[in-house]
Write a structure and sequence with these properties.
Layout (H helix, E strand, L loop, with lengths): L1 H24 L13 E6 L2 E23 L4 E6 L6 E2 L4 E5 L2 H34 L7 H34 L1 E3 L4 E3 L9 E2 L6 E18 H13 L3 E2 L6 E5 L10 E6 L9 E8 L11 E18 L4 E2 L5 E6 L5 E5 L1 E6 L2 E6 L6 E5 L11 E4 L8 H6 L14 E2 L4
Parallel strand pairs: 1-21
Antiparallel strand pairs: 1-20, 2-9, 2-14, 2-22, 3-5, 3-8, 4-7, 5-6, 7-9, 9-13, 10-14, 11-12, 11-14, 12-13, 14-19, 15-16, 16-17, 16-20, 18-19
Length: about 400
C-alpha cells in the first residue's frame, strides 16, 4: 500500500514537472504592451506679410511759440487779456504809457513841416535864379548856391519824414499786440510795472497748440537696423505717401486722432546717441499740452518673410534662447533654437530657425522629449493670418528684441 501511494505521488510530480517544462518552452508574451505614442497638437508654420511699426518715446512741443516782450520803455497802464485764455493775432494785450511817444511824434511832424516849408522857399529861389541866369542877372555862383540849398532842403524833408515814421512806430509799440493766435500764459508784469525796450522785458508767452508737434527720439542703432532690414529685403518700406503716427498718452490711453510724420532727422546727438523725428498731430480739444511725455507708433513697412507661431509654441532654454519643438520626419520630435523679433496678437514673429511648412508643437509638449515618436494633429484656427486680417487687428504694444528702441508689429 505504501508502494501504491508512492507511485501515485511520483506520477503527480512527473505531471507537474511536465506542465512546467511545457510552460517554459511556450512562446513568451510581452511583459507589457507597448505604450501608444503621445498625441500632440501642432501648427504648421507659414510665411506671412505683416505690417511693421516702431514705438518711440517723445515729448510734445507747441506748433508756434511767441514771447511777447516790450519794445519801448514805459509804465504798463493796462492788461487787456485773461491769463490762460485764447488770444487772436493782433489782439491788444498791454498798453504802455503812450504820452512821451505821442509828444515825440508831434515834434517830428513839426520838424517835417518846417523842412517842407524850407524846401518850398529854396525851390522857388532856385527856379527864379534859373530864369535870371539866362539874362546874366545873377551870377553862376548864386544859381549854384540856390540849387544846392534846394537839395539840402529836400534832404531835410526826407530826414524829417523818417523821424516821423520812427516816432510813429515807437508810439505803436506802446500798444502791445499778440503776434500769433494761440493760448496765453501767465502775465510776467502787472499794471504799473516799468518795462524796458532795451532789456526786452518779457510780458507773456503765446503758444499755438492746435496742431501740435511731437518730437521723438530714435536710437541710431534702431535706425541702422531698419536700414539693414530694408537692404536685405526683409522689410519693404511704405510708399511715398504720408506716414501715419499713432500716439499713446502718459496714462496709457490711446490718443484718438492720428498724426503724420513731418521729417526724420539726419544728425545723431552725441550726448544721447539718438536722432530726432517730428510728427504733427491735430489737437482741437487741447488734450495734448506742451511738454507731455508720450509714445508714438510709426509705420515702417511690411515684413513679407515673417513666420507667426502661437506663444504657447515657444519656450526658452537656460541660456535664454527661444526654442520650439518641431514634429520632424517620421513624426519624431526635434528641438529647434529660433530667433524671435516681436509678438503680435498672442503670436511670436519668428525671423530665423524655422522653415515654411514645419509643424510646431503648441499643446502636449510637456509629455514629449526630443527624439520621441508622437501622433500630431493640426490645431484649427491657429494658422498664420494673411496681411488683410493682420491689418484689421488691433495693434498691441510690442518690444523689439533687435532694437534698443521699442518696436511693434502694427497695422497701417
Amino acid at each position: 500500500m505504501h508502494t501504491a501511494k508512492t507511485n501515485r505521488y511520483s506520477i503527480a510530480l512527473t505531471a507537474a514537472l511536465s506542465i512546467l517544462a511545457l510552460a517554459g518552452c511556450a512562446p513568451k508574451k510581452p511583459a507589457a504592451a507597448q505604450a501608444a505614442p503621445p498625441e500632440v497638437s501642432v501648427v504648421t508654420a507659414r510665411r506671412s506679410s505683416i505690417p511693421v511699426s516702431m514705438e518711440l518715446p517723445g515729448r510734445t512741443s507747441p506748433y508756434l511759440v511767441a514771447q511777447v516782450r516790450a519794445r519801448v520803455d514805459g509804465i504798463v497802464q493796462k492788461r487787456s487779456f485773461q491769463e490762460g485764455a485764447d488770444v487772436k493775432a493782433n489782439q491788444a494785450l498791454y498798453q504802455i504809457d503812450p504820452a512821451p511817444y505821442q509828444a515825440a511824434l508831434n515834434s517830428a511832424r513839426a520838424a517835417q513841416q518846417k523842412a517842407e516849408a524850407n524846401l518850398a522857399a529854396t525851390s522857388s529861389q532856385a527856379e527864379r535864379d534859373k530864369i535870371l541866369i539866362g539874362g546874366n542877372a545873377v551870377s553862376r555862383q548864386a544859381y549854384d548856391n540856390a540849387v544846392a540849398a534846394q537839395g539840402q532842403a529836400a534832404a531835410d524833408v526826407a530826414a524829417a519824414k523818417a523821424a516821423v515814421a520812427s516816432a510813429s512806430i515807437n508810439l505803436g509799440y506802446t500798444k502791445v499786440s499778440a503776434p500769433i493766435s494761440g493760448r496765453s500764459s501767465i502775465s510776467q508784469v502787472t499794471q504799473g510795472a516799468y518795462v524796458q525796450g532795451s532789456a526786452a522785458t518779457l510780458l507773456t508767452t503765446v503758444q499755438q497748440i492746435d496742431p501740435i508737434y511731437v518730437d521723438l527720439n530714435q536710437s541710431s542703432v534702431a535706425g541702422l537696423q531698419l536700414r539693414r532690414d530694408v537692404a536685405s529685403g526683409q522689410l519693404i518700406p511704405n510708399g511715398a505717401g504720408q506716414v501715419k503716427v499713432a500716439l499713446t498718452l502718459e496714462d496709457g490711453s490711446q490718443y484718438p486722432l492720428s498724426g503724420v510724420l513731418q521729417f526724420n532727422g539726419v544728425t545723431v546727438d552725441p550726448s544721447t546717441g539718438s536722432v530726432t523725428l517730428r510728427a504733427l498731430f491735430p489737437n482741437p480739444k487741447y488734450v495734448l499740452l506742451p511738454g507731455m511725455f508720450v509714445h508714438a507708433r510709426i509705420a515702417q513697412g511690411v515684413n513679407d518673410k515673417a513666420i507667426l507661431i502661437p506663444i504657447a509654441g515657444v519656450s526658452h532654454n537656460p541660456q535664454g534662447q527661444a526654442t520650439a519643438l518641431v514634429v520632424g520626419p517620421g513624426n519624431k520630435v526635434v528641438q529647434r533654437t529660433i530667433q524671435t523679433q516681436s509678438t503680435f496678437d498672442n503670436q511670436w514673429v519668428v525671423t530665423g530657425g524655422l522653415g515654411d511648412g514645419e509643424r510646431i508643437i503648441v499643446s502636449g509638449a510637456q509629455k514629449v522629449q526630443p527624439g520621441m515618436l508622437v501622433r500630431a494633429s493640426e490645431t484649427p484656427g491657429q494658422s498664420s493670418l494673411p496681411l488683410e486680417k493682420l491689418a484689421a487687428n488691433t495693434v498691441p504694444t510690442v518690444q523689439q528684441a533687435a532694437m534698443p528702441a521699442s518696436a511693434v508689429v502694427a497695422a497701417k
